[in-house]
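Q: Protein A?
A:
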Amino acid sequence: MERDEQIAKLTSWVTGAARGPRSAGAQRAGAPDDPAVSGPLAVIGGPVAAGKTALLHRVQERTAEWGVRLLSAATSAAEQDIPFGVVEELLRDTADAPSPLPLHAPLDGGDFVPAPTLMAVHARLAGLAAHRPVLIAVDDVQYADPQSLHCLLYALGRARSTGQELSLVVTRGPAAGATPPAVLEELLRQVAGPRLRLGPLSARGVEALLAQRALEASRTGSAAAGARNAATLHAATGGNPLLVHSLLDDQAPRQRAEGAFPAGEQFLQNALICVHRTGADGLRVAQGIALLGDAGSLPLLARLVSAGERTVEDVVAALRDAGILQGTRFRHGAVHSAVLESLAEDAVARLRRRAARLLYEAGAAPMAVAAHLLGHGPHSLDEEWVPGVLSDAAHTALAAQRVGFAVRCLRLAEQCSRDERERLQLRANTAKFIWRVKPSAWAHALQPLNAALHRGILPVTESLRLVGGLLWNGWIDDGAMAIQRALEGVQGRPDAALAAELRGVRLVLVTTFPTLLGRMDSALGPDWDHAEPLADPSDDGVMTAMGLLQGVLGSTPGPRDRAGADEALTGRAERILAGTRLTEESHVTVRACLLALMYADRLGAAALWTDRHLEEAAERGAPGWTAVMQAMRAHMALRRGELAQARRLAEQALEELPPHGWGVGIGMPLSALIEARTAMADHEAAAALVDHPVPEQMLQTRYGLHYIYARGRHQLATGRHHAALTDFMACGKLMREWDMDRAGLAPWRVGVAEASLALGNREQAERFAREQLAEETGPRVRGLALRVLAGARPLRERPALLERAVTLLQDEGDSHELARALTELGATYERLGDAAQGKTCARRAWRIAEASGSREPGQGAPAEAAVPSAPPRAVTSAPEPVPVRSAPATASALTDAEQRVASLAAHGYTNREIGAKLFITVSTVEQHLTRVYRKINITRRQDLPVSWDNDVAHTA
């Protein structure tokens, strides 16, 4: 392919050589007109495997057509030092010679050839040329021995002067780094002739080659597929014909048709041959490029492989011409790997170490140096600069989200460090990063630090920073020891930095591990908090966020108005979240702010920010962060009645991080899953989760409160009312003792009221429900408390309480609890004789329950189900009068649009859902409902007649 012009030139040259000078004026039969004879020597040059030898063979094939005698020889680098090797090969078939040539006469030294030898070789060639033209063909002339080249130079010179028909055609490939013999340069300079240089195939040339091979194999294909395959092949081979054919030969027909060309054995073998044939230093330089990743810095590469810069430059150019390199990098990754694998393991280690040192001395980026140090391993890396470079590389990698690389750098730095304090610091950083990429291995990473703590060699600051990790893994006593050791190391009043660490630890204890708080406060004494503060405490995001979480959980927020305090705290939490990205330093800040929003019942904002940070954690490949936030997001979904989503998120959290990696934090996903399964009436699965072993230390933490409350919900739903009451009371006792008595954490009073109602203790149920309502709590929890309170009150009072509960729960979006409240409201209306209204509520409840994933909207100890069916004690002789509602107007008073909106609203659709279903705005929905209320003389959504359901299923 793409060799027609060169073939034509050589053919013309061969025919001219065949006629010779004596017959130049005569035209032989079949010879081209006016052949160009430019001299007795033709040179075919080009990169490795460009097709030079194939072109030479085409020339040799034509010699028989013109009556030319052919003498040929092929050389190799291994035979270059054999004197007269080429001459002997050229004349091996001249058996008609009268006497042997004196080729083995003693030489005076170097490549000097005695005159008798020169004359004898010329005489032999002249004798052959006397009968017919002689064409000498030498392949890879750059490897020809100098003695033979002297003989050829002499013979051609004599033939030119005497008019003998003697010609020479040679191929010459790259010999990067080698100095060619002077006689070769003299031969090519003094003897004139055509000079041809073969280049690689173009993309079109590769496409033509593909078409030819397809034709030979009787296969056809579209032009588009051929162009696509040709582009792929050209990119992988640079158009090197040998490599193109090799890559094709390695493929199955199906792979070729699909345009996929994975590297096979033949391709890799020939690619390595190409590397070897670039010169004596070709493989060594290629190995250096493979090790460094590219050949961007020739001086560095030259120093690495201990070669001259000119040699390296020549080899790189030859590799580029041969299609092995593209620019400064390997074209094909498999060739890169094959060249690297050609190095022995000890050579790789030696070169990696040398590369790292050279890069460090040249001021290269720490990550570039670290890449070679990591490839070398810790052995013999005793230079003092190594740990520092690896530590710097780890921080750079972390900023680029390459956490796995950072962890490997820190581990190697620790192994190479000679300083005990430095090793402990590196180990602590490693443990911190491991939590992000492989949290299940975090406990193992903390054990060496814990051992150092027990030996008393861990610095005070590192002891305090270790507390959170120890407590998370349930090592409560070790956490207490870390605090104690740190306090023992404080001499006098702590400085600002140490005071900040102490405050941070105290906030962790206050918000999550309160059982250790007393020990810390007693050890610190009353005046510890008067240490010099930080210059700007607001700069410490973790401290601020933990303070916000404490403010939300605490029973004394400062201002007398709980709602106002929550507004201020959650507003600040959102501002922090808006300006914070997930990092090793900030993920605790993010978690604290998200928990503050959730416990303050700002569920919409909490879910929004959690989803955003979950996306960020996924982008950064941080399973530890993802699992913890999935568990929190499951609780948010649970509080909004999204049971299926809560179950899915909790299960994903437990899959992302296995139970042994959760430590005491397992209470978070496990409690969400127990509550979701219970609410979905999957009691068997919930029971299995309750029976799952958990760390005993978990019950001493905030996570334990979630777990105890969830277990109480399961006990209540499965009829174990006394056990449920015990759990709810225990949960409330701990929350009050720990100053975490916040319904957003666990509405234990509602649980106590429900369990009491199920046990028939209306008085206690009402007392705890009213106690919950008296607390400054959010609308959602008020709705829960009102629903339970209704069950404890006389029948006549229940509708008003339940309707208030429905309104609050609907506004807050808790679909599961809304379905429960509507179920009880429907049952109440039925008992009061309003069957139509009861039917409306029941149908809405079932639709909402089905959407939320609950199988039984009234399950979980409904208020009325647990109470005897006897009439209320206040009724003695006659039933209480029941107010009768005026019948609503008929649907005929409404327009079609108003009736469609009213029908959907009556079946529990929200305004947004109605707008989406009917393709109208929320504002238009509100306007329609306002007119509907006025026309049929009602004031509330709950009063919409469910009988207008004739077209709901087909609406929009």
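Q: Protein B?
A:
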Amino acid sequence: MATPLKFAGLLLLSSALVAPAALAQEATAPADATATDPQVAADPAAQAGRSAAQEDAAPDVSIPGADIIVTGRRGSANIQKNTPAVVSILSSADIARTGDGNIAGALGRVTGLSVVGNGFVYVRGLGDRYSLALLNGSPLPSPEPLKRVVPLDLFPTNIVSSSLVQKSYSPNYPGEFGGGVINLTTNAVPAESFLTISGGIGANTESTYQLGYSYYGSKSDWTGFDNGSRDLPPALSAFFKSGERISSGNVDSVALAGQMVRFSNSTVQRITDLDPNYSATISGGTSFDLGGSTLGLIATAGYSNKWIVRDQRQQNSITPDLSALNSDFQRITTDNRVIVNGLLGLGLEFGGNKLRWTNLYIRDTLKHTRLGIGSTQTQPTSDIMEQDTAWYERQLIDTQFVGEFKLSPEISLDLRGGYANSQREAPDEISFEYIRTNSDADPYGDLFVNRLNGNTGQTATASYSDLNEDLWSGGVDLTWRPSPSLGLTAGYAYTDTNRTSSRRDFQFRASSDMPEGVGVLRPDLLLAPNIVDYFNIGVIETNEGNPAFRATLKNHAGYGKANLQITPELSIDAGVRYETAKLEVSPLQVFSTPGASTASTMLDNDYWLPAATLTWQMQENMQVRLNASKTIARPQFRELIYQFYFDPDTNRRYQGNPYLQDSELFNAEARYEWYFARDQRFSIAGFFKKIDKPIETYITLNGDNFITSFANAPKANLYGGEAEVQKYFDLSGFSSSDFFATRRMVVIANYTYTKSKLKVGPDDQVSVFGASSTLATDYFRDGASLTGQSDHLVNFQLGLEDQENLSQQTFILSYASKRVTSRGLANQNQPDVYEYPGVNLDFVARQGVKVAGRQFDAKFEARNIFGNKYKETQSNSDYTVIYNAYRYGTTLNFSLSTTF
């Protein structure tokens, strides 16, 4: 149901107190150029046209079959208290106070939540596979090859009306609910007509006006759209259509090699002064009184462009005691990220009914350039120079219809249906390695040379990958309240997901009689058409076995649940969900002659998933909740696909395991809540999860390459507790100064302790495709923590806000303890790889100002004030391997918006 290499720093001198933040918060990695846009005030569409009284009105929430009690009155009770489940709700006003440019950043401040990597939300230490993301109650596909869950940093805050986080399971949600559900509700019917224009500019101490690297690409790259220059070369396109294999000898591989590498896609150039980050947003909306009904129209469009530079130290070791390095590199990564988004929404409200048609478009493009130098164990006296250029396009198109009908005072009906398409294209992923032998006996020993022979430091590759996913979904929920104390809900949901993923990898090879001097040429000259033809340079396809896959998931589900007020003090919300799903992954036939691959998956399972929450209201403002449930977690498509994939952000190569199985979870929680004043509360909770066959990562060697893959560990337990307090202090009596007359101070603090342990016995077995060992102890260590889980998460906010005018100043402090990012090398008894997020401090200020008689909303952000670094290491008592380390830098943003 709906409810109404090192860089000079920039120094900023700023003084202010601070202001309230989101409803709650949780530790995240420090904000940097990857996580924070110089975004406009986060709430133009949702906030425009609202009166002061409406500012605190209950947020709009659209989820399947929910009995969420929200009155929308200014003096209404706490939302969290009146819901039958454990929820946190961030309204657009809450998000605006913390100034986060995307929803992932805002959710990182909710108790028990942390953001890992590029926008993937972990709930109570459980990975993104255990989190569920919905938009207006409907599922979303992911444009990420490694994920089925959409990265939430794709969603700018200006298109979201509210974000609901529910950490206790209820049967109206899909069964893939290991950690929690995150539901985003888009804006619908505006209270008044408005047009908001906003713009922002930002700088980062590690990138803005600093040294970086890039390549030409095309004239239109700044828009996030390629102008066609990265289309497949004619010879390569014809080869793909032919169905031939290069290994058959029937393909002119020299013709292919001569068209792949050009100046525009492979020549790395130095940029001495990178541009500042900037963004712009325009939002508008209006409503029409149709006599007994209201038609609303909301549209928003946004654009942001930012540069991210990482000066990275990256090492790895293959020895059990870490005494020798397998590789040691210093790499400079420069990314230009462009995000274009748009939303068009129509809403019709009549009586107690609401129709909502939402159309969403998000395009996230990354122009990636990396230059590195280092050494390897096989070439210890040589220097190896690497360069990578790539273009990654992620796109999400979503259209959905939601109908919420009040058929009678006792009966309500929800209907929802949607179609979503996500795509990820990566044309021209081009990599080169050059070697400098530093040998007096080598006539070219003082020069970097690439002989194109496939040996270490003398390789060149080009890859072309494409992912397309279609998701159809539908659902119906019927609620009947025969009495004020009883509500009965039943529903049905259907999803049909179809993904195709292809990756074609090519390596350039020259004959041994090519003169060594040719190898000193830069990439576009080394593989220029005349050089390729003259020296007969060709290509081989390194993955002819499994270049393309199709993955499908069809899920039918039905549920029933009851919400019963047993006594005035005691209520129960209980029900059960039945799900039957068929998940298939199989190789696609790419070549005319079929391969003999057995790398396929067929999971056909059904589950009964009960859940119950018992609430005892011991006093008017105090209550205790007890919750127990059973949920599942299915393998993600990419974890099943037996195909290599390189992640440039983590410098890791992945490969799926077709033998993965579903994980099953038992969840329990006990919670005490004290709502001592409006919007003020204290809560403390304990939770426990038992996971059967959790999916965890492990690392193996493929030649000299580290490969991250996946397997079902036998079992795992996770337990912990969390506490939260939110308190406001009226400052009107603090001083006779007019400054404090209308201001209040807010203190928000939360802490989450989580402990997890893998349970691995000496005789436990695992299933790994293509592996010789099935012993679980060869892949996992008994007692090890789950991947991505921090034992301690702390958030603290201290702020000032004016209760009559827009004036807010907020300090936001967060801390996350170390967490496992990768296992040590399988069967080598290596220690795990840990990330150390550490302490992060942000400052956000919003101020209403008048310029030339017009009211503006000015916002200033300072992110990662302490200059916290990213650090990922593998260590024992004697040695430390720096897996990945770089500086985030401090990010400063300023934005200005006005509403007409």
